[in-house]
Design brief:
Shape: elongated
CATH class of the largest domain: Mainly Beta
Radius of gyration: 30 Å
Largest sheet: 9 strands, antiparallel
Helix content: 25-40%
Number of domains: 2
Distance between the termini: 46 Å
CATH topology of the largest domain: Beta-galactosidase, Chain A, domain 5
Structural class: alpha+beta
Number of strands: 20
CATH architecture of the largest domain: Distorted Sandwich
Strand content: 15-25%
């Protein structure tokens, strides 16, 4: 209980911010998406959208805005808008996902940067660097392939979307490229929020990368002070920018030899909006081999099943729990996979899946809890005798220790029994931590309603579930002390802890509150059984057989 009360609020609880921050973010949105949406698939149209290049980590200011053409490619899962000049993706619309912002509730989610394209390309040719947003391309489209071709520089860039995925193969050829030439890529410096809680979404903005044989590294925008430069020169197999639910990742092509292809990542902090960091810059590079380069572009949801299919640890792009990541992440993965399996096989809503999951966890832990409670009862029965021995041998520690050991042995216990008996009570804690992160950061639960709750990943708007959780916790405590010996401290805790938990859980996800409330209610029968057993037992001094006097 102390771990939940201290560690979770200290390190992990979402902080609410002023409404003005969300409003200022919304005001930063531009007309780029609306102008891109008006373009018919496969048709180039002029648009007055800003095509400003996001500055690289070492740059001082963005490139001026210019008139661009938009090229639209429609696939099974996405609808991608490319900018020309630049030959870069501007916006990717997710088929099947709707925005949760009240002012865009009828729109499909579009992953885009408020002030320009998602990516920016530069060709480094020895001492010369060519920004591709200054180059106009000829465009050719055929089915799921869009090809950009220019004569100066002599360059061909092809995007081929993979059916039923969010993956696009990106391939390029630069004629007469000198040795050491490379493609320099600026990652998104901003990602427009499509969530109901815009501020919380901005707090989740981060860059990430994976170096072979090392854990995934995640650098939140908020950890980069304005104009602070941070770099990693390792060879990387993928680099990414993300917010709470959506991801833009550049990856080594699937089914290629092990190793990294991206030459490091340089990051720079951007301006702040109060305590929020909505902007940061990152740049990477990929070397040209015989004038050619290739990588895969993923723009889509942070779905566990989809990202795991790539086999490159991309599913860990959003590492949970900070300093406790090594402990919590395995439980988070197991918990999420269990919930997905239950959802797939029961065909129930995620709300009922959480209810069933909570009851199932309680049933599985029933024997361990029973043993723990009976150990507590036995310790309660022995306590008078243990106290008497401690008083009798107060000044003789060796004799006191030997006498206590004999009492424990006579009753089939050991001095470690009290501690071992408490361990089953800690087993649900990793699951609770895991659910905290899973329910608030997993795309599968985004916007999922249940009963009166509009979104299981957000707080209960009517605070019903945290109140039910607190009341059920109080009932458990009240039943637990009903037949116990008078203990002012235990009585005080029985009233304080439910109230403290209720206040702490008020703004946590309604799904987490639902799970915890179900856990408490499912525990009531076992608590009643233990209380009845305690009521039948007289708390008297029961001398150990070896210590009885004749």
């Amino acid at each position: 209980m102390a771990l939940v009360l201290v560690i979770v609020p200290r390190f992990f609880s979402p902080r609410r911010s002023a409404t003005t921050a969300a409003d200022s973010t919304a005001a930063a949105d531009t007309s780029l998406r609306s102008s891109a949406a008006s373009a018919a698939p496969g048709v180039q149209q002029p648009a007055a959208s800003p095509a400003a290049a996001a500055p690289s980590a070492a740059a001082a200011s963005p490139t001026p805005r210019r008139l661009v053409e938009t090229v639209v490619s429609t696939g099974d899962t996405t609808r991608t808008v490319y900018a020309n000049p630049g030959a870069v993706p501007v916006a990717v619309t997710m088929v099947g996902f709707r925005e949760l912002r009240p002012d865009h509730h009828d729109s499909l989610v579009t992953v885009e940067s408020p002030n320009g394209p998602l990516l920016h390309y530069h060709i480094a040719l020895g001492h010369d660097t060519v920004a591709l947003d200054t180059v106009h391309f000829a465009v050719h489209q055929q089915k799921d392939t869009t090809t950009f071709t220019s004569t100066s520089p002599a360059l061909t860039l092809t995007y081929q979307s993979k059916p039923d995925t969010y993956l696009t193969n990106v391939r390029g050829t630069v004629a007469n490229a000198p040795p050491g030439a490379s493609l320099v890529i600026d990652l998104p410096s901003e990602l427009r929020s499509a969530e109901a809680d815009t501020v919380d979404d901005l707090r989740n903005l981060a860059f990430g990368y994976k170096i072979p044989l090392r854990d995934v590294t995640s650098i939140p925008f908020g950890k980069l002070d304005p104009n602070e430069v941070r770099a990693d020169s390792g060879s990387m197999q993928w680099v990414a920018a993300r917010n709470k639910y959506w991801l833009v990742a550049l990856m080594k092509p699937v089914k290629t030899p092990p190793g990294g292809i991206f030459r490091g990542l340089t990051m720079r902090g951007g301006p702040r909006a109060g305590k929020i960091a909505p902007v940061a810059y990152a740049t990477t590079a990929i070397g040209l081999e015989n004038g050619q380069f290739a990588f895969d572009l993923y723009v889509g949801p942070q779905s566990l099943e989809v990202l795991r299919s790539f086999g490159n640890d991309l599913e860990s792009v959003n590492p949970y729990a900070g300093i406790l990541h090594a402990v919590v992440q395995p439980f988070s993965t197991i918990t999420m996979r269990t919930l997905l399996w239950m959802k797939k096989n029961t065909h129930l809503s995620y709300g009922w899946v959480l209810v069933i999951f909570g009851v199932a966890i309680r049933v599985v832990l029933w024997p361990l809890y029973q043993r723990s409670m009976r150990t507590s009862l036995q310790m309660q029965r022995l306590q008078p005798e243990l106290s008497e021995i401690q008083k009798r041998y107060k000044n003789e520690p060796d004799k006191q220790r030997d006498a206590l050991v004999k009492v424990y042995q006579a009753h089939g216990m050991s001095p470690f029994s009290p501690m071992l008996g408490c361990l089953p009570m800690l087993l649900p804690m990793p699951i609770l931590y895991a659910l905290y992160f899973v329910l608030r950061s997993t795309i599968e639960l985004r916007g999922v309603p249940f009963l009166w709750m509009p979104d299981l990943s957000l707080r209960d708007p009517y605070y019903i579930t945290p109140i039910v959780m607190g009341l059920s916790m109080f009932v458990m405590s009240w039943i637990g002390i009903k037949a116990a010996p008078p203990n002012p401290q235990a009585k005080m805790m029985a009233y304080m802890m439910p109230a403290m938990f209720t206040l702490m859980f008020l703004n946590l996800s309604s799904g987490l509150n639902l799970y915890y409330a179900v856990q408490n209610i499912a525990s009531l029968p076992q608590q009643l059984m233990t209380t009845r057993e305690r009521a039948k037992m007289r708390v008297t001094t029961v001398p150990a057989p070896a210590a009885r006097r004749t």
